[in-house]
Request: fold
Amino acid sequence: MSWLAKEQDKLRTAWKALQAQWKASCALWNDPVQRDFQEGYWSEYEQIIPQAQKALASLSDTIATARRTVR
Reply:
């Protein structure tokens, strides 16, 4: 497994854990401050992290192609 694949796996694992914790927090924290946090911060992470995951996958494919080409 390449270093990039390991980092992708770490990001995927951390993101799943963070999502689970956020869901658990929302079950207990339901007030205007929570909604402000969700709108001001969390919703941005929900967009950025999947984009980062896709970019890492694309980068991984590009590196793999380059390695095959060079060999």
